[in-house]
Amino acid sequence: MARPHPALPLAAAFLAAGAALTGCGAGAAAGSGGGAAPEASPSAQAAAITVEDAWVKAVPAEDGMTALFGVLVNDSGQEARLVAAATGVAGTVELHEVVTGDDGNPVMRPKEDGFVIGANGRHALEPGADHIMLMELGEDLEPGQEVEVELEFADGSTTEVTAPVKDFAGGEESYEGGGSHGGGHDHGGAEGADGAEDHG
């Protein structure tokens, strides 16, 4: 009486498993080959933006906050939107606008939708107007220092700007955010900031 050959079903099972693995490998290779995104896209918003005349107000750390000013320049034919910023010298960074409060005095508050730089356009960051607020300072900022700030745009792309620290004086705006950042904060017009105007 002939015995059954268990090796035959086992061999068939191994062949089937091998075919399944080969199929998975081919699918994975096809997926990774065609779907990889480039590290940097030529159409990235950050690639089209430069910052002219960037500068930061000199303050002691105990002041708690200062601001970055300059001009955002868009060299592309599409609008860009700055939505966030970060720096190693501040625990919190916010995009701010200045509006007139109920009492008639200027009040600064977060710009929820960010700053839009139109196609081939410019957007000024000025004392008494739109600016980038550096809050929860971890060190004194003295004239002659440089501050590196990373700017993030709506498409997730980023760029860095290096801004010199300068002395200036100007008007006071209240901060609408309340909490530890409430009260007046002087970041008005510049004196000795390379021609920056006094908007305070």
TrEMBL record:
Keyword annotations of the record: Signal
Signal sequence interval, chain numbering: 1-19
Pfam families: PCuAC
Record keyword Signal present: yes
InterPro entries for the chain: LpqE-like (IPR007410), Lxx211020-like (IPR058248), PCuAC_sf (IPR036182)
Superkingdom of the source species: Bacteria
Name listed for the protein in its UniProt record: Copper chaperone PCu(A)C
Region feature (Disordered): 158-200
Organism listed in the record: Streptomonospora mangrovi
